[in-house]
Amino acid sequence: MPRLIVQTLRDPELALGLLILVALILIAVLGPLLWRVDPLAVSVLDSLAPPSLQHPMGTDDVGRDVFARFIWGAQVSMSVALTVTLVGTVIGGLLGLLAGLTGGWVDAVLSRIMDAVLAFPPLILAMAVAIGLGAGMVSAMIGVVLAAIPWYFRLLRGEVMRLRGLMYVESARALGATNMRLIRLHILPQTLSTVLVQASSVFSFSIITMAALGFVGLGIQPPVPEWGTMITEGLAYALTGQWWLGVFPGLGIFALAVAGNVIADRMRDLYDPRSGMRG
């Protein structure tokens, strides 16, 4: 963490990514306290009102405040992406640790399963799961998690296989250390930075994929505000001048995805032993 702080002070792109991420988190957390407008409140008389002081992001076709819905959408998108990232990290990481330490038929079976999952494009896999389980937040999250698990598996498996061949790990095993002790003392501490970088990338992937599922009607269902669904609702008015319906949620997705990717790239440069920025 101290190295990340130092790198942030030296790297304007990393600082900008963190600033965008913190700003969106503050909007999601403090927005409902500062902007006390019901995102589900309908006011037909105020429908399709352009951005103004009363409605900073305008209103939609039934008079709902777009800014209030944007705030709620930020909460939904980030909480779902964080949940998907954590669940994928735990499941994929544990399977990767198991395969890397055990080897043999366990490694072979798990690797073949992960290869089969990776054969499908991530978005197509998430859509197929959402269709099979029924459109909704839970099914969409399951689809995104399944698409992310093989990434963690391959990453952790490779790291564990590399680390278990090092001299100090072999020495600890020769002295009677159990697999759990090896993981706790010698393997996990060496892989945390790698997992953190991967988690940053998966967070951005989750944001974009959940928005894509919402855009095609397979994600979070109305009336719950979600940025992808809001863009879909705004498409009907894109050619009639009501640009704010789709632009603002689109900017939210873009900003959050860019922030996550920039942070992941810079953290990879920071923690990759082969990177010239390491230090």
UniProtKB/TrEMBL annotation:
The chain crosses the membrane at residues 12-35, 80-102, 123-153, 195-220, 243-264. SUPFAM superfamilies: MetI-like (SSF161098). Its main location: membrane. GO terms for cellular component: plasma membrane. Pfam families: BPD_transp_1. It is a multi-pass membrane protein. GO terms for biological process: peptide transport; protein transport; transmembrane transport. Keywords: Cell membrane, Membrane, Peptide transport, Protein transport, Transmembrane, Transmembrane helix, Transport. It is found in: Cell membrane. Residues 74-264 form the ABC transmembrane type-1 domain. PANTHER family: D,D-DIPEPTIDE TRANSPORT SYSTEM PERMEASE PROTEIN DDPC-RELATED (PTHR43386:SF1), OLIGOPEPTIDE TRANSPORT SYSTEM PERMEASE PROTEIN APPC (PTHR43386). Belongs to the binding-protein-dependent transport system permease family. This is ABC transporter permease. It comes from Kaistia nematophila.
